[in-house]
Amino acid sequence: ENTPPVAAREHTVESFTREFLRELNFGQGVDLDRASANDKYLALSRTVRHYLTTRWLETLRNQYRDQAKTVAYLSAEFLLGPQLENAMLAADLDEIANESLRALGVDLDELRALEIEPGLGNGGLGRLAACFIDSLATLNVPSVGYGIRYEYGIFRQTFEDGAQVEKPDTWLRLGSPWELPHPEHAVEVSFGGHTVEAEGGNDGARTWVPDWRVAAVPYNYMVPGYRNGRVNTLRLWSARATHEFDLQIFNAGDYAEAVRARTFAENISKVLYPEDSTPQGKELRLQQQYFFVAASLRDFLETVLPADFDLHRLPDRITWQLNDTHPVIAVPELMRILVDERGWDWADAWAVTQKVFAYTCHTLLPEALEVWSVDLLGRLLPRHLEIIYRINEEFIEEVRAAFPGDELRVRRMSIIAEQPERAVRMAHLATVAGFKVNGVAELHSQLLADKVLHDFAQMWPGKFTNVTNGVTPRRFVRLANPGLSGLITEAIGDGWITDLEQLRGLEPLADDAEFRRRFREIKAANKRHFADVLLARDGIEIAGDAMVDAMVKRLHEYKRQSLKLLHIVSLYEGITSGRIPLDAVTPRTFVFGAKAAPGYVRAKETIALINAVGATINADASLQGRLKVAFPANYNVTLAEDLVPAADLSEQISLAGKEASGTGNMKFALNGALTVGTDDGANVEIRKLVGDENFFLFGMTEPEAADLSARGYDPGAYYESDPQLKAALDLLASGVFTGGERGGAVASIFASLTERDRFMALADFRSYMDAQSRVDAAYADHEAWSRSAVLNVARTGFFSSDRSIQDYLDRIWGARPVTQNR
Ligand code: 26M
After folding, report:
1. Is 312 a catalytic residue?
2. Is residue 644 part of a domain?
3. Residue 1 has pLDDT above 50, yes or no
């Protein structure tokens, strides 16, 4: 209250130039004519950051003054993507910076290209968190994101002879102008040890005697709302060895051991685990989870809340939103704080705990549900394990009271699994403790309540809800697609940037030939730009004008990249065998982007096979360049921003009932690509909104897939009865794509598709091929296609993450926007 506000920077070219040169001279210590491109990039980034700083400090002051209900988004991943452009847009500096740098003879595009994106996430879940904090700021919600500052983010993917090779992601190597470390605000996080009887005598209390500690150092990132005067905070924690850590061992005289021990502590935030399903139960991963959760809870309770705050009123001040089960250890941590540290009775603590956590589930695959062995959890967090046991005892009593005599149900619902080893089921813990549980698309939420968490939904039907995912229109339309953004704004004004439903206003223009022509021109320019990017980034040459058919997502059997591959191989087989005349083939560029988890052998084999097929097709002159396969390595947010605006066709072909939502599907539709997709995840909602005639649906429905799987799926029957499918698979198996090699990846993928395939790719092959024929036919009519594309843009405003956040506010958080002074 007493600190005088910092004077805001002036929004003029002269002022911007002055600040930029000051940063270059005093921040980097160089003159403009001697500055490297990196010097200029860092100076520019800091200059832009400083323009937002006044608002940031103001937001923090207001947050402390207002004591409004706050949302803390707890997530092990924030896949932020490049920061510079987004910050310039939010601060309304894009034009000023452009002009200023042009006058100085500095090439802004060259500087932008230097930014290394913080890839602190695996895929959909991490990118969703990044979209959500953008929308929270833009919607003026008092909120903070909490996560981990990994020193190495998602690995950099390279291909060697077509095979994925992982390289460390050294994103910090050239400096990190977007973060502000605060080592003086480090908090301690404890691990290991044992528990002893407590002094206080309150019900449930024990005392934890840990045996090692690390310091958690906060690094703050600004999260600017879109030109609304609010700048929120993302707080990422980095692990440092404590001094105590040093003293113990240095005193023992073993210098080398002491230094090694520091490394051990600092390992905790060293690297992001690259699995995005089938968690491995690794000790370091659990250390990461508790590390960031314990630091984040302490941070909120001790620095955001006033010192005299009565924690009984906690539910009026906070919702901790749990992004999947990764932060669920927060539940026993809060209980420990209230019961052991603050001396509350168990029942009081549990009553409050049950009102402050809400849980978002992001999967349907049983193998993706996290469990922690009791053995490991008890060693690392002995007190938390005791607390989980007591939560479970009381929960099980509740189940028995509600369903007397139903011991099978008790076993199914227990937080503790007994088989194959004793383990804590984190999704059960989250569901028991959370006051709300949500899925991420209508179908997904339904399947959660009907299948994955059915017993829980029977017990607490009111607890389950849906919030369909969304994506931020600032990054994925306004920034990624300036051409389309300009066209939209010219037609309906710029209100759509923060109120995406306004895109509806474009609907009548789908019937306007001149509008469609301009829309096609923009798409064509975006394709040429994407072709330039591929050439410069990867040395990949593609035609500037072919249909861009994109499948970009993590490599997973359930997502069925192999079904896409079969389509390509079948086309190639048809052409080379003379069944399909070459001039009947729509020129297409198949674009793949996909990282495989390093230990996921079949996913890596699929990558190798896509690359082998691609190399063969791309080298085959007889195709006259009509088909191309482009598989740029290391697909990331930066590349997505160039690909998505260029795409004509969006491939969303998971087995129905397996993809929780998908968010790439939304980005493509919003940029005017048509979807070829199954009735899965948010595809269902996209199709409902754009209309059947503007969407290429294929494949089994979820009930059909579940039924086939239950009856027994026999891939051989499809192989034998569909001659085209057989021909494609046989061509694959023949070794023509692999230099005659029929073993290795070829044999393995052939067997995985034709012997037993949980994701039943062959069952949907015929229907997929038919859908692709409909795509070709539709694409041939440019006017009709662009009409559909415009309607896709006009009708998918629902998928703004602003709408998702509004749904969270209405259905879950009960928090309210707090407007800043502008
Ligand atoms: C867990 C334990 C150990 C190591 C890694 C993990 C882990 C990390 C990420 C597990 C899952 C992770 O992400 C899952 C994910 O990205 N799910 C996707 O979430 C999106 C946003 O809701 C949905 O759109 C996708 O359908 C869903 O697959």
Report:
1. no
2. yes
3. no
Distance 720 CA to ligand 1 centre (A): 36
* 683-to-123, 464, 678, 760 alpha-carbon distances in Å: 18, 21, 7, 19
Q: Which candidate in 606, 663, 754, 796 is catalytic?
A: 663
> Contact, 438 vs 661, CB < 8 A?
no
Q: Which residue CA neighbors atom 6 of ligand 1 most closely?
A: 276
Residue 553 among the catalytic residues: yes
Pocket test for ligand 1, best of 120, 122, 325, 445 (most atoms within 8 A of CB): 122
- 465 carries an active-site annotation: no
Distance from residue 437's CA to the centre of ligand 1 (Å): 16
What whole-number distance in Å separates Cα of residue 465 and Cα of residue 442? 9
Lowest mean pLDDT, pick from 58-67, 72-81, 217-226, 573-582: 58-67
- Per-residue tokens: 659: 């993809």
Ligand 1 centre from 442 Cα, in Å?
Answer: 18
Atom of ligand 1 nearest to the CA of 325: 1
271 DSSP assignment: B
Distance 169 CA to ligand 1 centre (A): 20
Strand partners, 423: 373, 417
Identify the CA nearest to 569 among candidates 738, 716, 717: 738
Render 78-107 in DSSP notation, one character per residue. Answer: EE----HHHHHHHTT-HHHHHHHHHHHT--
For residue 336, give both structure tokens: 């420990």
Is residue 625 domain-shared with residue 748, that is, in the same domain?
A: yes
Q: What is the pLDDT of residues 82-121, one digit of tens each?
A: 999 999 999 999 999 999 999 999 999 999 999 999 999 9
* CA neighbor of 699 nearest in space, from 670, 678, 673, 671: 678
Residue 821 in domain: no
- The answer to whether residue 663 is catalytic is yes
List the catalytic residue out of 46, 444, 667, 803.
667
Summarize pLDDT for 380-432 with one digit per residue, the tens. 999 999 999 999 999 999 999 999 999 999 999 999 999 999 999 999 999 99
From 271, 277, 448, 559, the mutation candidate for ligand 1 (largest count of ligand atoms within 8 A of CB) is 277
**pLDDT tens-digit series, residues 732-741:** 999 999 999 9
- 22's enclosing H/E stretch is helix 13-22
Using CA positions, which residue lies closest to atom 10 of ligand 1? 276
pLDDT tens-digit profile of 135-168? 999 999 999 999 999 999 999 999 999 999 999 9
277 Cα: distance to centroid of ligand 1 (angstroms): 6
- Are 228 and 820 in contact by the 8 Å Cβ rule? The answer is yes
Question: Which pLDDT belongs to residue 258?
Answer: 80
pLDDT in tens, 643-688: 999 999 999 999 999 999 999 999 999 999 999 999 999 999 999 9
Residue 429 and residue 368 share a domain:
yes
611 and 714 share a domain? yes
Return the pLDDT at 279: 86
Whether 777 is in a domain gets the answer: yes
In this structure, the answer to whether residues 242 and 109 fall within a common structural domain is no
> Which atom of ligand 1 is found nearest the CA of 123?
16
Same domain, 676 and 746: yes
Confidence at 251, pLDDT banded by 50, 70, 90: low
- Residue 636 has a pLDDT of 98
Residues with CB under 6 Å of ligand 1 are: 122-125, 128, 273, 275-277, 279, 285, 362-363, 370, 440, 469, 659-663, 681
Number of domains in the chain: 3
For residues 462 and 514, membership in a common domain is answered with no
- Provide the domain limits for residue 51: 1-66+93-116
Ligand 1 center to 79 CA (angstroms): 12
Cα–Cα distances in Å, from 121 out to 79, 271, 325, 460, 526? 5, 11, 15, 32, 27
The reply to whether 820 falls in a domain is: no
Place of tokens 């579940």: 706
Q: Which of 278, 363, 555 to mutate to test the pocket of ligand 1 (most atoms within 8 A of CB)?
A: 363
Give the whole-angstrom CA distance, residue 472 versus residue 468: 13
What ipTM goes with this model? 0.98
